[in-house]
């Protein structure tokens, strides 16, 4: 066997050593480290949620292991994934209940790509079941969920956990911008404009018959029981606060993450102290932070929410202008998105000889720079934090959720980042958590 390949036997042995706190040797690793092995020598993976995004992620995971189980509350999705030549290859077992995947001792890795309101319930139970976890962004639905998943990840810190914020692995653009900011090449950062576009508007949508292939009650999970409307389900769930946070948590999970990483505000106890949602509009009328109509998209479509940090830096989370992040410092400014990185500091190469492989390795938390899922499987093998770990992600999500709360209420709110409390506003503080529907409670570790 080539040196950079690992059998399932060695994979499990390594995981056992890590669980015991025993160091394992660093090994040369490349993209096909798992993918070139025989099916019998690769880790087994269960994919929970195999809709549009879940299909893409499942195909990515299949490059590193055997997808032996697929699960979805929509039978059509699950059967399609089973018979996908790049996922289940006609052999994967099909489930409609994720717990059956977690019950299997022969599955080492799970991929969670469900609607947002299901993420941490499944992720926490997967950790408790001894699995390594990949979960799509945004990881959480509420501020309380941030605390719950962080506690679970700390308890199970020998298991790898990666969030699908793949911009962190973009060495040519986002990581380069982060490096420039962290090295002070732009001076002190005074303002960050984070463009995330606005949610679509739509409705009213008619109540419809639940499709025979869909378990609507299970899809709703902890969310309130409501009539089925096609535009509440599958990808359209993003535009309803009951299941997501609109663009605040959709694109916000990506761009706010990069912004807070760059200014070193991605650790527990850090974050904004004031979030102003005065300049925000919603497509339906609101009272006390709740939509007064249940038949139309309800997440904000037009907004500029301003978060202020203790050092004076402002983060403007806006639906207006270009999608991407504009960093403005006392020495210079740059703009970065998935298509480009621009500005005088880039044109003049202010980071020449200051963005080395060593710098990239530092940003990768000591791991070599490589693809996003590569980093996940490396951390499964070697231990250590993934590039997109739970602690850093929930810090970004605090800002995203606070922005949504301030926007829903249409006012400024105060946040104590050390106590993780909304202060001086009992109405705003009531949005910290949500009571789950009976039978769908989130496990607390």
Tell me what you see in this structure:
There is one protein chain. The chain has about 450 residues and is of the alpha/beta class. It is built from 14 helices and 18 strands. The strands form three sheets. Strands 7, 8, 9, 12, 13, 14, 15, 16, 17 and 18 form a ten-stranded mixed β-sheet that branches. It has a six-stranded parallel β-sheet with strand order 3-2-1-4-5-6, sandwiched between helices. A hairpin with a 5-residue loop joins β12 (about 300-310) and β13. α5 packs parallel to α6 (about 145-155) and α6 runs antiparallel to α13. The longest helix has 20 residues, at about 390-410. The two termini are about 40 Å apart.
Distance between the termini: 40 Å
Q: Which percent range describes the beta-strand content?
A: 15-25%
Number of strands: 18
Shape: globular
Tally of helical segments: 14
Structural class: alpha/beta
SSE topology sketch:
Blueprint lengths: L7 H12 L24 E5 L3 H10 L4 E6 L3 H8 L10 E3 L2 H5 L6 E4 L6 H10 L3 E4 L7 H13 L5 E3 L10 H9 L6 E7 L20 H5 L31 H11 L11 E3 L3 E2 L4 E2 L2 E2 L10 E7 L5 E5 L5 E6 L3 E4 L4 E2 L1 H4 L9 H7 L8 H11 L7 H20 L2 E5 L4 E3 L2 H4 L16
Parallel strand pairs: 1-2, 1-4, 2-3, 4-5, 5-6, 7-13
Antiparallel strand pairs: 7-14, 8-12, 8-17, 9-12, 10-11, 12-13, 14-15, 15-16, 17-18
Please provide a brief summary of the model.
Helix 6 packs antiparallel against helix 13 (390-409) and helix 7 (174-182) packs parallel to helix 9 (252-262). By secondary structure, the chain is of the alpha/beta class.
